[in-house]
Design brief:
The chain is of the alpha+beta class. Helix content is 47%, strand content 16%.
Length: 260
């Protein structure tokens, strides 16, 4: 009797219908290439777990458990991938902002003396010194007047994909409009993307005067506290005179006295 009862119970268990929810959950988690489906499979597997227990009305508990495990793994993978895609998308968008807005915003900051607004757009470690920026603003204001705007020329598109490139710009000052360029470089730190999230940074801004003279703003004297004069020669820190003038004075001092 006991053997017959055990056989009857086993046979009855085998005759339980399969849980459609458990099967669906398992299938959905396998479709991990489609966003959200692994998460749906995870939730369905969790819901099917109680109905497929040992004393439950349905079979398919192993499928429900497997769906839950795969659902957790694939959902986590999709979350990480989505975060990376969003980060890359933000960096690409910021690159457009740097190219189309950076020169204008940096110039505006320089002319009104806002160093943070000025330096934020430059390549990491390549922002011009305060003295260099002051000398550039002074020379630009003398030649062109007050700054108004800097925009890319119509029809010119930035050649994204290159590690460095220049964009033709039109600079508008109170004295008129002038041609020029802004040079950009890939903003990497030890071969990795910067924490700032910007792929590009400015390395040089050039405004061309009507006579062909270029007024350049870059980090050429980074670390120096002495601005260059209008001739491009840095004045001596002690005398305030250009280095060439000081050198000439030194040679005069060293020349032998003339015979009486």
């Amino acid at each position: 009797m006991n053997a017959d009862a055990a056989f009857t119970e086993t046979n009855h268990a085998e005759m339980k219908p399969m849980s459609g929810m458990a099967v669906t959950a398992f299938v959905l988690t396998l479709l991990f290439c489609i966003p959200v489906l692994p998460l749906v499979g995870l939730l369905l597997g969790l819901a099917a777990l109680g109905r497929t227990s040992t004393d439950g009305p349905l079979r398919g508990r192993p499928l429900a458990i497997t769906a839950m495990i795969l659902g957790v793994l694939f959902t986590a993978g999709q979350v990480v991938t989505t975060i990376k895609i969003v980060e890359v998308g933000e960096m690409i968008a910021s690159s457009f902002i740097v190219v189309f807005t950076g020169p204008d915003d940096a110039m505006e900051g320089a002319f009104k003396g806002d160093s943070k607004q000025t330096n934020d757009w430059w390549l990491v470690g390549q922002a011009p010194s305060a003295a260099r920026t002051k000398a550039f603003v002074s020379e630009a204001r003398r030649r062109f007047g007050e700054f108004k705007s800097a925009v890319p020329k119509d029809g010119d598109q930035p050649p994204f994909g290159q590690s460095s490139f220049s964009m033709p710009l039109k600079f508008v000052f109170s004295n008129g409009s002038y041609d020029g360029t802004a040079s950009f470089q890939l903003n990497t730190e030890n071969g990795e993307l910067p924490e700032s999230g910007r792929l590009l940074g400015i390395v040089k801004i050039t405004v061309v005067d009507s006579d062909g003279t270029e007024v350049v703003w870059d980090a050429a004297d980074a670390g120096s506290s002495t601005p260059a004069d209008s001739s491009g020669t840095a004045p001596d820190e002690t005398t305030g005179k250009p280095a060439a003038e000081k050198s000439a004075e030194k040679m005069d001092d060293q020349s032998p006295p003339s015979d009486p």
